[in-house]
Design a protein that fits this description.
heterodimer; A: about 400 residues; mainly alpha; four-stranded mixed sheet; B: about 250 residues; four-stranded antiparallel sheet; 9 helices
């Protein structure tokens, strides 16, 4: 390998790529603008829907207890619109399904009497109150939460009163308290909410960021008939492979860096830019996280670059290269998406799974779980080894006439 | 000087082996323009690609300027300027950037390289568009840049594969002038074409190839003397007929 020739090829390829509008779109426009825009649009949309649902008048029906009962009044006190029972055109559950009602509360016949019978130990099971709601509608879920809270409070009060009537303390109902303390530091808590999805986004953008330059610098050159021009110079095929490989790697790492910075800015600015989004998007990514993720992604970028280069060298035309890349994308996206699954953790099994191992390490790094570093180092080494093997395959392919001049 | 001795090259096409060159020998002397003539598919491009070290022969000896091109392809390429009719360059680079890039691959030092670019720009009248991106140049301007790219390192051997194919009259003339000038400068010039009248105009030595075999190799004057009154086309057709009648 001749360093000066590799440098010359790398500099030329990088200049050529950076002048290409398509590279700029995949490297800068999508990560820097499209991703934040997408996050803001989704967050704004869901916030606006939540606000609308909260402010909207909710109509419910209460069936089975008289309007004069205390429980009816307690539900009515929530301010929700209660449909008169004599105006109900069909069964309450069907009205909820038809969106005529947001919620229906159905008490069994003789509800109050049954409760008393239960307290008197003359009934084995308590009466059942059925709440009909529609999970697909946020407004219905909100009505459910409100009414359920009223009913739970009423139930607690009744039990307390019963216990007191028997000369017992009302708090006997709770012989012990439950306290859940999340031991995860606050920055990790924020990371765990969005770390999974960010790890996935970063991996996907790294893959797509390297796809265009990898194909353009290999099969693109074949198609444009510029490859031969380069092959007749004293630059060896090793110099050409390394020069092109470094260009693809640098572009994919630049795309990744822009993605991470863009996500950082989006997350940190979300709270101030969007009122109420603070909790949803408050995710701080410090320089230590950015640097560690980027360093860790180097062998992953090498792996993707070498893989796509192999596809590009084998393909005869750009179209053929794109066709070969599509199933490859699916093969890469699926393992990357696995890191988002609950319960997916780094283990002896997962560290040997390409892409999955990297996604899981990135997720942990975003969560600022620094205890993962020894495992991350092992995954780094494994990915480096795989990238080196793939690069060797690319090198071999570039030396084969039957591949390079395939027609 | 270019010398090919008993070169064999076979390609695999599906399940069949295709003999591209069979026992193929030729010699191109310095200071002369050698025309390798033959129809499409005769093996011209394969022979030229082997000389340019793009392809490896299965057997035989390939010498470029006394260097064994099979053993040391990188060194051999330093002595060769290779140009084809469909050689393309980078649309997003300017001619100056392109020439600097190729100069750096030939490890030319910056001062020497800039001087050579200026010399070629003057010689090929490229000054007006030296800093304009390739994508905005005309076919003729691109062809001039291709020539400049091929000779940026001032090679002793120039190999041209159908360099005028697909070019208009003016661009084609630029190439022919370049070939004649290179020959007169004492360089070894080998060019292939299927347009026999073009070869008749500019070559001193001729090689005729058909189905991967060299049918005839001699100076144009000798060939003309042996076949008085005949054009190269007539001579070629006669040779092909005789060759096809011979038992293989």
């Amino acid at each position: 390998m001749n360093v000066s020739k590799v440098t010359a090829i790398f500099r030329k390829e990088l200049k050529d790529m950076l002048r290409d509008r398509r590279t700029m779109i995949s490297m800068i426009v999508i990560p820097a603008l499209a991703i934040p825009l997408l996050i803001f649009v989704i967050a704004s949309f869901s916030m606006s829907k939540a606000r609308q649902a909260e402010e909207a008048e909710k109509t419910i029906a209460i069936v089975g207890i008289p309007e004069s009962s205390l429980l009816y009044e307690a539900i009515a006190a929530t301010g929700m619109n209660i449909a008169r029972n004599d105006t109900l055109a069909s069964a309450p559950n069907l009205l909820v399904l038809d969106k005529k009602l947001d919620l229906a509360v159905e008490f069994p016949p003789g509800f109050e009497g049954s409760v008393q019978e239960f307290f008197a130990n003359r009934l084995e099971t308590p009466p059942e109150v059925v709440l009909y709601y529609n999970e697909s509608r946020l407004i219905s879920e909100m009505a459910l939460r409100t009414v359920r809270a009223v009913l739970q409070e009423n139930r607690t009060n009744r039990t307390g009163e019963y216990l007191e009537s028997k000369g017992l303390r009302a708090d006997l109902l709770y012989p012990f308290h439950l306290q859940s303390n999340n031991v995860m530091p606050p920055e990790q808590q924020a990371g765990s909410q969005l770390g999974r999805i960010i790890a996935y986004i970063v991996m996907i953008l790294m893959l797509t960021g390297s796809a265009y330059p990898a194909l353009d610098l290999t099969v693109g050159e074949k198609e444009r008939q510029t490859l031969e021009t380069l092959l007749v110079t004293p630059a060896g095929r090793t110099d050409i492979v390394i020069g092109k490989f470094l260009t693809i790697l640098v572009i994919s790492l630049m795309a990744t860096l822009i993605t991470i910075i863009s996500l950082t800015v989006t997350m940190t600015q979300a709270g101030s830019l969007m009122k109420g989004a603070g909790d949803l998007l408050s995710f701080q990514i410090g320089p230590r996280v950015i640097i560690s993720v980027l360093v860790f992604l180097i062998p992953v970028g090498m792996f993707f670059s070498a893989l796509l280069m192999a596809v590009g060298i084998y393909a005869r035309t750009m179209k053929e290269g794109q066709s070969y890349s599509q199933p490859l994308f699916m093969l890469m996206i699926l393992p990357a998406a696995m890191s988002m699954l609950p319960g997916m953790e780094l283990s002896l099994k997962t560290i040997f799974m390409p892409v999955v191992n990297a996604s899981l390490v990135i997720r942990e790094l975003f969560m600022q779980n620094w205890s993962i570093l020894p495992t991350a180092a092992a995954v780094f080494g494994l990915n480096l080894l795989m990238a080196a093997l793939l690069l060797w395959v690319v090198y071999r392919m570039f030396h084969r006439e039957s591949v390079l001049f395939r027609s | 000087m270019i010398r090919l001795e008993q070169v064999h090259k076979c390609f695999r096409s599906g399940k069949k082996d295709v003999q591209a060159l069979v026992d193929f020998s030729m010699e191109v002397k310095p200071g002369l323009v050698y025309g390798l003539l033959g129809p499409n598919g005769a093996g011209k491009t394969t022979a030229l690609r082997i000389i340019a070290t793009l392809l490896k022969p299965d057997a035989g000896v390939v010498t470029v300027n006394e260097l064994d091109a099979r053993r040391d392809p990188g060194q051999a390429r330093r002595h060769i300027g290779f140009l084809t009719g469909d050689t393309k360059l980078y649309d997003r680079l300017t001619p100056r950037e392109t020439l600097r890039y190729f100069g750096s691959l030939y490890e030319m030092i910056p001062g020497e390289l800039d001087g050579r670019i200026a010399e070629l720009a003057r010689m090929l009248q490229m000054d007006d568009y030296l800093d304009r991106r390739m994508g905005r140049l005309s076919t003729g301007q691109k062809q001039k840049l291709s020539i400049a790219r091929a000779v940026i390192h001032n090679p002793a051997v120039i190999v041209l594969d159908e360099p005028t194919s697909g070019l208009d009259v003016i661009a084609s003339r630029n190439v022919v002038e370049f070939i004649l000038q290179s020959g007169s400068e004492g360089k070894t010039v080998l060019f292939s074409t299927h347009i026999l009248s073009e070869a008749e105009r500019i070559c001193q030595d001729i090689g005729m190839i058909h189905l991967g075999r060299m049918l005839l190799e001699d100076s144009l004057s000798t060939i003309k003397a042996v076949h008085p009154g005949n054009t190269l086309e007539d001579i070629f057709l006669e040779l092909v007929e005789n060759h096809e009648e011979e038992p293989q």
